[in-house]
Specification:
This protein is mainly α. It has 3 domains: 57-132, no CATH class; 134-196, no CATH class; 201-303, no CATH class. It is built from 16 helices and 2 strands. The chain has helices at residues 2-20, 29-41, 50-55, 59-69, 75-91, 95-107, 114-124, 134-144, 151-161, 166-174, 181-193, 200-209, 214-227, 230-241, 261-271, 289-303, and strands at residues 279-280, 283-284. Helix 8 runs antiparallel to helix 9 (151-161) and helix 13 (214-227) packs parallel to helix 15. The longest helix is centred in the first third of the chain and has 19 residues, at 2-20.
């Protein structure tokens, strides 16, 4: 009986506590952004969590506020605004919202701070073409003609998003005598990504001449992955089939060389539909790479060269 009375007292106290606890008002996105930017102006690092962004009310008003912050005189505030616009894009699936956010981010490509410009190029690589407005696409093409910083990355972004009229501009740059070979290399890759294969043989021949080693796998092959061209995919498949021990293991305590196929199949997993294994953050989701490689090779044989490419990701 005493135990029952104690339980009743506990429940009564708990009930009184709950009904007396005030319900916190939902914070608006505008208030969250204003507070974050005020602290940023003071030189404080402000970490805004995904939970805060997701739970904040007034998305439309917050996006309008971000547009203003993106034009602020403070470099730190502008940098923060583009970063938060990108974070919001990762948490939203509404197309109109994503278009508004990409419209904000693209303005950063012409920012006088080259660090901000480079970051905004990277941010836009995460957007699907359908979530980028025609105005933003056009502005990207126009930016190419203004010799901006990070032009090699910008031209690759343009190749991925493939705006109307971009191919003519990029093609002209690819054959220009006034641009460096590095820039023209990126232009030719972008053309391949947009479906113009006139430089495909040129690119593949130079890559194949390098042979295969760790440097090539990590620094050069990503260019072929980006291009999504038919010969590029065929060459990557050949490397997955190869047992040549031309690469070093990631674990420095492991002696001897390993096949480069392990890393290359991770590249293929990111660009081929219905691949046997998921790839997350560049890594194949498996604990048994030898078994995975065998399964991937079997899957490749079954495709008979008929692969469906993932084109809506950078």
């Amino acid at each position: 009986m005493a135990s029952t009375n104690n339980q009743m007292k506990y429940l009564k106290i708990l009930f009184l506590f709950l009904i007396s606890t005030p319900v916190l008002a939902q914070e608006s996105l505008s208030d969250l952004l204003n507070n974050a930017m005020a602290q940023t102006r003071q030189g404080s690092y402000v970490y805004v969590t995904n939970s805060q962004l997701q739970n904040a009310s007034g998305l439309s008003a917050g996006i309008t506020l971000l547009e203003g912050f993106a034009q602020d005189s403070s470099v730190d505030v502008r940098r923060k605004s583009y970063y938060l616009a990108t974070k919001l894009s990762e948490l939203n699936s509404d197309q109109n919202t994503l278009i508004q956010l990409s419209d904000i981010i693209v303005t950063g490509i012409s920012d006088e701070n080259s660090g901000i410009a480079g970051s905004c190029i990277d941010y836009l690589k995460e957007f699907n073409r359908a979530n980028v407005s025609n105005a933003t696409l056009s502005s990207l093409v126009s930016a190419l003609t203004q010799n901006p910083p990070h032009i090699e990355e910008l031209v690759r972004l343009v190749g991925y998003l493939n705006p109307d009229g971009a191919l003519n501009v990029v093609s002209g740059m690819a054959g220009s005598d006034s641009l460096s070979m590095q820039i023209k290399w990126s232009c030719r890759l972008a053309m391949m990504r947009m479906g113009d294969l006139q430089y495909e043989d040129f690119i593949l021949q130079r890559v194949q001449r390098l042979g295969v080693n760790d440097d090539v796998v990590y620094e050069v092959l990503p260019d072929l992955v980006y291009s999504r061209s038919p010969q590029s995919v065929t060459y990557l498949v050949e490397l997955v089939r190869s047992d040549a021990l031309d690469c070093q293991p990631a674990d420095m305590e492991v002696s001897g060389n390993i096949t480069c196929a392990y890393r290359v199949m991770e590249y293929l997993g990111a660009i081929l539909q219905d691949f046997p294994y998921a790839v997350q953050d560049g890594e194949l989701q498996t604990d048994d790479y030898p078994a995975a490689l065998a399964a991937v090779r079997t899957w490749i044989d079954q495709q008979n060269g008929n692969y469906q490419l993932i084109l809506d990701q950078y």
